[in-house]
């Protein structure tokens, strides 16, 4: 599951909530507050997508690569152990 999927929405909605509170406290007119909120939501949505791309590039993808490398090395170790056990069994059969 992609953990970074919700980053743009979280960033945008958090900024929208803050701007709503600020426009109410400063008693903006309805038209002016809607314009400010809309522009803020669009701007922070774009910012959220940029943050998502940076997180995927620098955090998630290297972490996935490390996990895959560990899995591959564990698989190769397991295969080596299995091959060693089989050869021991073959040696015992040939001795009998």
Write up what this structure looks like.
The protein has 96 residues and is mainly alpha-helical. The protein has one domain. Helix 1 runs antiparallel to helix 2. 5% of the residues are buried.
Task: Provide tags for this entry.
single chain; 96 residues; mainly alpha; 0% strand; rod-shaped
Shape: rod-shaped
If helices are DSSP runs of H or I spanning 4 or more residues, what is the number of helices?
2
The computed structural class is mainly alpha
Query: What is the H/E order?
Result: HH
Largest sheet: none
Terminus-to-terminus distance? 54 Å
Task: Report the average pLDDT across residues.
Answer: 83
Q: Helical amount among residues, as a percent range?
A: over 70%
The total count of strands amounts to 0
Low-confidence stretches: none
Range of strand content: under 5%
* Radius of gyration, taken over Cα atoms and rounded to an integer in Å: 28 Å
Task: Provide the domain count.
Answer: 1
Please summarize what this structure is.
The chain is mainly α and 96 residues long. It has 2 helices and no strands. The protein is rod-shaped, with a radius of gyration of 28 Å.
Present the secondary structure layout.
Elements: H1 7-25, H2 30-95
Helix pairs in contact: 1-2
């Amino acid at each position: 599951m992609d953990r970074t999927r919700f980053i743009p929405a979280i960033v945008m909605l958090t900024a929208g909530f803050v701007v709503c509170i600020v426009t109410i406290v400063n008693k903006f007119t309805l038209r002016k507050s809607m314009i400010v909120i809309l522009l803020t939501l669009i701007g922070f949505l774009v910012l959220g997508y940029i943050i998502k791309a940076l997180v995927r590039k620098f955090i998630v993808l290297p972490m996935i690569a490390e996990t895959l490398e560990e899995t591959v090395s564990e698989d190769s170790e397991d295969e080596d152990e299995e091959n060693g056990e089989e050869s021991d069994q073959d040696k015992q059969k040939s001795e009998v």
